[in-house]
Amino acid sequence: MMKQFQKTKKYYLGVLMSIDKKFIAEVFQNLDLQPNEVERIAATFELLDLKKGTILLHENEVVHDQYYVRSGCLRTYFNDVSGKEHTIQFAIKDWWISDYTAFFSTSKALLQIECIQDAQVYKISRKEMEVLYAEIPSLETFFRKKMEKGFAAFQKRILSNLSQPAKDRYYSFIKTYPNIEQSVKNYHIASYLGITTESLSRIRKEITS
Amino acid sequence: MMKQFQKTKKYYLGVLMSIDKKFIAEVFQNLDLQPNEVERIAATFELLDLKKGTILLHENEVVHDQYYVRSGCLRTYFNDVSGKEHTIQFAIKDWWISDYTAFFSTSKALLQIECIQDAQVYKISRKEMEVLYAEIPSLETFFRKKMEKGFAAFQKRILSNLSQPAKDRYYSFIKTYPNIEQSVKNYHIASYLGITTESLSRIRKEITS
DNA sequence: AAGCTTTCTTATCATAGATCAATTTTTTCT
DNA sequence: AGAAAAAATTGATCTATGATAAGAAAGCTT
Questions:
Q1: With a 7 Å cutoff on the CB, does B40 touch strand D?
Q2: Does any CB of chain A come closer than 8 Å to the CB of residue B82?
Q3: Which chain B residue is nearest to residue A104, measuring alpha carbons?
Q4: Residue of B nearest to A142 (CA)
Q5: In this structure, are strands A96-97 and B65-79 parallel, antiparallel, or unpaired?
Q6: pLDDT band at A131, cuts 50/70/90?
Q7: Is residue A147 part of a domain?
């Protein structure tokens, strides 16, 4: 498949920057970064325009980057041996996305990252980010906290998969992520909940009646 | 239920320490800590002797601590509305355990921590650990990496729950955690795999035949 | 607007694993 | 060792969700 996204220009050394610094400051809003720190960070961010359908990361590619979503919608999913897709994560505005399991160890992707609504994302490499950790320690804390949230979300998901019927999990999903529900297809939601699209359809029918 | 564990004495300021510093150094073996750093850490560790059956943490208690297992075996589990137990994690020698979701935010426990084989554990408070992060930055990195591993394990579990039948999940479990298999009951394993003990029994029967 | 293509729905039948109810085996305690 | 408790097994039946197969509806494209 052709690459459907294009890179924006990138200028190093902070002389000229194509990326909106103000926006970068908002990404890390609670950190109270110094202007020079924001500039330093901005230099490592790369803005990408993605068309719906783009596969940003393919299975077995080494994962060097994570992405911050400015707009649009992406998801990570796993293709199992029987050809079924299992959605691990959706990401809309202000979410981070990657195959984190592979990202952390700079190893091969198990997941694919797919753009499911035209999107603008920042691409951030792990390597550059680790250099930044040393310069701006609060960044490491920022990402540690993100990770803690992600960990908690995964645990919650394991428990709801184990203890709740599909109908309850669907209710939780639309209640917890109303904005995501609007950006994705029902078959995406089904693959996230771990049911077939037919089962989801039956659940939805039950609800409306 | 009576408390079945007793605290060991604890001496502050590094004047006298009841806890084996050599052992502490091993906990963080890859960090290459200085002797004074080890001493500093040791002062925040509290050694507990636990009897099988002890509930170290009850649902709805605020979670201030995590535990490092020196010996024995513990598990965290969730009691769902219908009275079923769902095991989230087992911990044997050299594993860390807590209700991390609550631990990270110092909020109320959803899980219980149960000692399932007589154990010796170190208790480490989040608060003290965060002070240590500032003094010994490599500690924050150490725990971030642990978290990354835990995150990856959770993702793997979500995917295997969604894509594999119980039999395959059981095979993976005993292959991945042979040492845990020997320390826990089959009904613990069943509650980890998300099946009933009857189903696990049938799977085991199939294997032996 | 007509015709594709994608997405969603509906119906029928199949099945993994649950539930219920005993029973047997293993472990623990006195 | 023998009794009691805990854990594991087995059988019969039930149920939520899957698989398969059509169709209907919605969204794009020209």
A1: no
A2: yes
A3: B148
A4: B144
A5: unpaired
A6: very high
A7: no
Give the rounded distance of the alpha carbon of B191 from its chain centre: 16
- For residue A43, the enclosing domain spans 6-136
What residues of A are in contact with residue B82 (Cβ under 8 Å)? 163
User: Residue B27's domain is classified under what CATH number?
Assistant: 2.60.120.10
Mean pLDDT, range A181-205, rounded to an integer = 97
Q: Is residue B26 part of a domain?
A: yes
Which of B82, B154, B192, B193 should be substituted to probe chain A, the one whose Cβ sees the most A Cβ atoms within 10 Å?
Answer: B154
Number of domains in chain B: 1
Give the three-class secondary structure for B121: strand
ipTM over 0.85: yes
Question: Which residues, including other chains, have CB under 8 Å from residue B131's CB and lie 6 or more apart?
Answer: none
Distances from the Cα of B106 to the Cα of B65, B77, B99, angstroms: 9, 18, 10
Q: Which of B110, B140, B159 sits opposite A144 (nearest CB)?
A: B140
Q: How confident is the model over A7-25, as a mean pLDDT?
A: 54
Q: Is B163 on the interface with A (CB under 8 A)?
A: yes
Q: Phi and psi at residue A8, in whole multiples of 5°?
A: -90, 160
pLDDT range class, residue B13, cuts 50, 70, 90: very low
Q: Is the CB of B172 under 7 A from strand C?
A: no
Specify burial of residue A66 (Cβ count, 10 A radius: 0-12, 13-18, 19+): buried
Q: How far in angstroms lies nucleotide D13's C1' from the CA of residue B190?
A: 22
The DSSP-derived string for A121-185 is: EEEEEHHHHHHHHHH-HHHHHHHHHHHHHHHHHHHHHHHHHHHS-HHHHHHHHHHH-HHHHHHS-
Tokens of B176: 């991945």
Q: Is residue A198 part of a domain?
A: no
Express each pLDDT in B61-120 by its tens digit: 999 999 999 999 999 999 999 999 999 999 999 999 999 999 999 999 999 999 999 999
Does some domain include residue A197? no
Interatomic CA distance for residues B13 and B5, integer angstroms: 25
